[in-house]
Write a structure and sequence with these properties.
By secondary structure, this protein is of the alpha+beta class. It is built from 6 helices and 9 strands.
């Protein structure tokens, strides 16, 4: 019997764990109802991530606030390329500490969903019903709709993974539908490809790459301040890490502006 993903049958955002409770202009506030909705939504993140280390560093809403560069589906993999806000913040902190010009990126991280037998994207209406959205229209540039990565979570069924990502778009003209788009993928495996080390090295040299990779390696250690996912900790601990490695400004490349290259 051919496999059919349960995602294909979903008609309501509640069934995928989405935030389904929305106020309307004439509706009285109901704190209990709102709290129950929040509790239900937060259960998405209580389940262990079915992704191996170090790839799991980039799942479970870890890429919150990153911008979507593009979504591409190939024969064997669906690629969601993000412009990593963590790498951007790291770069900004490094540039400020060393008084270097700031490089705007992009800082790409690919979320890879392997063997995607089913892919779907939808917005929700005011009742929680799902309405079709083209996932390939989400991303930056070329007339596409800008999308910000908010949260992602997993379901598991029949030995496969069902991955849901909640994205935010600013096209507010969709009065009847949500600004959030839910991307749903039924896949065999999830992994990630962090392309930021190479981008960091091209911008600031090998020393920058080394520091970035050290901060990323601390991603699962909440007690470590030099942690890629701890902006304040990075600010407070970068000078100490530079001293520990014997690094000074002269060890870093000084990026050339686009105007100076032309």
């Amino acid at each position: 019997m051919a496999y059919t993903s349960w995602l294909a049958e979903v008609k309501d955002v509640r069934a995928i764990g989405g935030d389904f409770f929305r106020w309307t202009a004439n509706e009285a506030l109901d704190d209990k109802r709102s709290e129950l909705a929040d509790e239900r939504w937060r259960r998405n993140f209580d389940r262990p991530l079915p992704v191996a280390y170090p790839d799991r560093l980039f799942y479970g809403a870890s890429m919150h606030d990153s911008w979507v560069l593009g979504i591409e589906r190939g024969k064997n993999v669906l690629r969601v390329r993000l412009n990593s806000i963590q790498a951007r913040d790291f770069m900004a902190i490094l540039a400020a500490e060393l008084d270097l010009p700031r490089v705007e990126g992009p800082w790409p991280v690919d979320l890879l969903l392997h063997d995607p037998v089913y892919v779907r994207a939808a917005r929700s209406d005011r009742t929680g019903g799902l309405r079709f959205e083209d996932p390939h229209r989400l991303g930056e540039g070329n007339g596409l709709t800008d999308a910000e990565f908010l949260y992602d979570w997993f379901w598991e069924q029949d030995g496969r993974l069902q991955w849901v990502a909640q994205l935010y778009t600013g096209d507010r003209w969709r009065a009847a539908l949500s600004n959030e788009v839910f991307l749903m993928v039924d896949c065999a495996q999830a992994s990630a490809a962090d392309l930021c080390p190479g981008a960091m090295e091209r911008a600031y040299g090998a020393a920058a790459r080394m520091l970035y990779e050290e901060a990323r390696a601390n991603g699962e250690n909440a007690e470590e301040p030099f942690n890629l996912w701890n902006e304040r900790g990075l600010e407070d601990s970068l000078a100490e890490r530079l001293t520990a490695h014997g690094l000074t400004r002269e060890d870093f490349a000084c990026p050339v502006s686009e105007g100076a290259r032309s």
